[in-house]
Amino acid sequence: MASSYPPIIRVIDLETTGDKPPAHAVIEIGWQDVALGKDGRWELYGEGGNRMVNPGRPIPPLTMAIHHIRDEDVADAPWWHDVARPILDPWPRRLALAAHRATFEEQFCTPALTRGADWICTWKCAMRLWPDSGGFSNQFLRYWRNPEGLVHERGLPAHRAFPDAYVTAHHLRDMLNQTSVEQLIEWSKAPGLLPRVRYGPDRGKEWSEIDDDSLATFLTDRDEDIRFTAQTELARRHSGGQIRQSLPAQDTLF
């Protein structure tokens, strides 16, 4: 019976007590599926949903101020390991999991809970596919791109698990209709390729615009995304032109 259903990528969003497990824990998980249709196009699929989770510890005021989930809201909720696996592993239809800045979700959604699923990071992929955007947060992309079919009220409030997953799913759908699942996974496994310089005298410039001495200062930066981007630009200069990226049916990036 499972074969009668389309293959899906499940978009995940978490709200947590903080960003460093095991000291911090999940308090809400939201999801929205994106499915491959018979016409070969990807579309949102199903209603998605969310589940509250008892984190087993108090929720700090700092994070409560972001998502507005209180201790009393999760006091009677189930534990993470009782909730996670059925949501993260809708086997056998799931091709991959996705999240915006997926490295955060991956800390809590471990391979044991996901059956070793591949992840797509829509933040990293957005920088590859839409480098002209003025920002790459989930909500900035929402208003910059205005994705077709996104119901404004359904994507609110921001910083709650289902609305954020719902917004991310629209970005993912458009990415999948622009390039392949395999390419998105490949980009997601690498550090982020930043379209513009983040700080310093060259802040806001494209990497191709800065001189060699300035570029050299970024090659040993503590931020792996900056290092990776500087190294990629250096390799492009040494190759005498653009570094091409393989894209099924498309071959543009920089």
UniProtKB/TrEMBL annotation:
InterPro entries: Ribonucl_H, RNaseH-like_sf, RNaseH_sf. Signal peptide: none annotated. GO terms for cellular component: cytosol. It holds the Pfam family RNase_T. Keywords: Hydrolase. Coiled coil: none annotated. Residues 8-181 form the Exonuclease domain. GO terms for molecular function: 3'-5' exonuclease activity; nucleic acid binding. Its EC number is 3.1.11.-. It comes from the Bacteria. One of its GO terms (biological process) is DNA replication proofreading. This is Exodeoxyribonuclease X. It comes from Sphingomonas kyeonggiensis. The lineage of its organism: Bacteria, Pseudomonadati, Pseudomonadota, Alphaproteobacteria, Sphingomonadales.
